[in-house]
Amino acid sequence: MGEQASDYHRGEMEIQEQVATYNLFMGMTKWGSLAIAAALLLFTVWFCTPGGFFAGLISAVVLTVIGVVLLRDKPDAAH
Questions:
Q1: How many domains does the structure of the chain reveal?
Q2: pTM (2 d.p.)
Q3: pLDDT tens digits for 16-62?
């Protein structure tokens, strides 16, 4: 039993797959949330206000552009 515990050495395991999975999940969550928000805005304005389809489309496009600008990956700051 004591030998099994000594097989593990902190910081020596390869974690690239876990990092890639985490980054993919976070990206899908971020961009999926933006897509859902834009679709909800489109359909809410289209069906629940007198603005109609084009007002909903314009507001959804504006939300999407603002979301892309704010949510895109930013370069790491140099330290």
A1: 1
A2: 0.77
A3: 999 999 999 999 999 999 999 999 999 999 999 999 999 999 999 99
Domain range holding 45?
Answer: 37-72
| 12 belongs to a structural domain | no
DSSP 3-state helix, strand, coil percentages of the chain (rounded to 5)? 75, 0, 25
Please spell the DSSP secondary structure of 17-71, one letter per residue.
HHHHHHHHHHHHHHHHHHHHHHHHHHHHHHHHSTTHHHHHHHHHHHHHHHHHHHH
The token duo for 57 is 């489309």
Tell me how crowded residue 30 is: count the other CB atoms within 10 A of its CB: 14
